[in-house]
Structures are given as C-alpha cells and as structure tokens.
Amino acid sequence: MIAAGVVMSNLAYLIGVVVLAVIGGLVVVLRHRKPKSVEANMASFNRGLQALAPDKAPDASPLRPRSTAEPAVQRRPAHLARDGDAVDDDESEASTG
C-alpha cells in the first residue's frame, strides 16, 4: 500500500501547481483586458478617426521616391513681397520701421 504521506505530498504539489496556474491566468487576463474608462474610449475613437482621415499627409511615402517629393512652400519676407502678395500688418510695420 501507498503511504498517506506520499499521497498528501503529491496532492499538495498538484494543488500548488493549480493555484499558480490560476494566478498566472488572472495576471494575463487583467493585463490584456480593454480599458473601460471614458478617456480610453475617446482615445480609441480618435485613433479610428485619424485612421480614416489623417490631418496631414506624411512627408515621405515609402512607395514614392524622395526625388519626386514636392518642395516646401516658403514665404517671402515682407521687404521682398511683390505687388499683389498678401503681407501681414505686423510684417509691413516692422519693415517700414
């Protein structure tokens, strides 16, 4: 016959493994659950909106070579503005002194 001590030690080992597995499973479930706060829902909604219609196109696309990228538009200083160019009042006052 098997001694009662051997059965109890095997049973204790089995109970310990089951308890550790349950604790590990709870940790994994709690870490990977979706947040339920209002801020998390708003952030998720905003990410969805940005995916559908981003505010600004990326500067360099991996599908388009850099040489065909459009050059950045530069504003002329107020003292070099041509006739018909819009000049801010602050700039025109600063240049006339």
- Structural class estimated from helices and strands: mainly alpha
Helix content: 40-55%
Pick out the low-confidence regions: none
Mind telling me the C-alpha Rg?
34 Å
Overall pLDDT metric = 76
How many strands, which pairing sense, and closed or not: the largest β-sheet? none
Please, could you describe this protein's structure?
The protein has helices at 4-31, 38-52, 89-96. The radius of gyration is 34 Å and the shape is rod-shaped. The model has no long low-confidence stretch (mean pLDDT 76). The chain is mainly alpha-helical and 97 residues long. The chain has a domain at 1-56.
Layout of secondary structure:
Layout: H1 4-31, H2 38-52, H3 89-96
